[in-house]
Amino acid sequence: MVTQIKLGLCNPPEPIYLFVNQGEVDGESFVWYKxxxxxxxxxxxxxxxxxxxxxxxxxxxxxxxxKDNLKLDIVVSAxxxxxVRTGIETNFAKSFLLAxxxxxxxxxxxxxxxxxxxxxxxx
Length: 123
Known about the structure:
By secondary structure, the protein is mostly beta strands. The protein has one helix at 91-101, and strands at 16-25, 28-36, 41-45, 49-64, 67-77, 81-87, 110-113, 115-116, 121-122. The protein has one domain. It has 1 helix and 9 strands. The radius of gyration is 15 Å and the shape is globular.
């Protein structure tokens, strides 16, 4: 792995949550964004790819507009700990899970690329 782990007491790393959704800010398009909860604001991420080691896949239930929504969390260890969160029924989630099912060696880093489609963000 690229990151050196320091042994001893420490605070656990805070993950960086990335969300998948296409958008545009000041003429610049993006397919990933971070979300600032205190300002309720999307922060675009201009890079289209995330490279790292897949460390976990998990299903998370999040409440949105009074309803429970099932989300896929893709946990990636890289220069930081990233959690890519997307709806379980999205094209991105379905495409990612299909592609991941074909991988035989998860000890090597993966490159996850989000590409904007006509109406949806796809993997």
